[in-house]
Specification:
This protein has 5 helices and 5 strands; from the N terminus they run βαβαβαβαβα. With about 120 residues, the chain is an alpha/beta fold. It has a 5-stranded parallel beta sheet, with helices on both faces. Helix 1 packs across helix 5 (about 110-125).
Length: about 120
């Protein structure tokens, strides 16, 4: 099954790295969309079918935590799994993110293999 994936990060370089890692992972992608912050992501999610979101925590306009909070409050978005991709990774922070509805945490830097394992785990493969 090919997935519609949204990558949300304020760094164009990081978005490109995540997109390349997804391509190298062997995961089938139907559409890869990108956004520079949480608000742009919500705008996309409001209009497009998305199977999975990868998001950074710290971004201007709206960060990943606020974006997840708003997604969970929206009936049309609350079921979309979100993976946080960040250098921040204390156990307390990760547990708080998971409790808020984030499905997984991927620490930067990551490998295409770890990305694939995360996607397969979330998407039930």
């Amino acid at each position: 099954m090919a997935y519609n994936i949204l990558v949300v990060d304020d760094s164009e370089t990081v978005r490109a790295v995540i997109a390349k890692a997804i391509g190298m992972s062997g995961v089938e992608v139907k559409t890869l969309m990108t956004a520079g912050n949480g608000q742009q992501a919500l705008d996309i999610l409001d209009k497009e079918w998305v199977d999975l979101v990868f998001a950074d925590i710290n971004m201007p306009v709206m960060g990943g935590v606020e974006m997840v909070k708003r997604m969970k409050a929206d009936d049309g978005m609350k079921g979309i799994p979100v993976v946080i991709v960040s250098t921040e990774g204390s156990a307390t922070r990760i547990n708080g993110l998971l409790e808020s509805g984030v499905r997984a945490f991927l620490r930067k830097p990551f490998t295409p293999e770890s990305l694939k394992t995360t996607i397969d785990s979330i998407m039930g493969k």
